[in-house]
Amino acid sequence: MLAVIARRLPDRSAPMPGYLSWEEVRVAWPAVWDVARAVEANGVRAKRRRSTGAGGREFSWYEYRAVDVQRVADAILGGTAVLEPSWRTDTAEGLAAHAALTTPRHRRLRLGRSRNTDHSGR
Known about the structure:
This protein is an alpha+beta fold. It is 40% helix and 14% strand.
């Protein structure tokens, strides 16, 4: 985790001391594409942060406890982490699940947009 933290650029959006950003967790767990499920399944503690942009819009994101991320990284290497094959980048199931979630149709449906804009019930 120290190597991940050492690469941070100094700015106000850097994670708090002892925490990692989602992107840093992805670097620490290269065998995992579904970070959210792996975080939950392995008990990684997270803290929600908020910030207000120049236009007054509020943004929020999660930061993850570095000690928990390291524990899970060690467990991944040891083969003891709680990971479904479909969450991994090194299994056929994981590659298929990731591909299914990154298709343009799925992204549109996930964002609540569909081609049918007629909501009249017909």
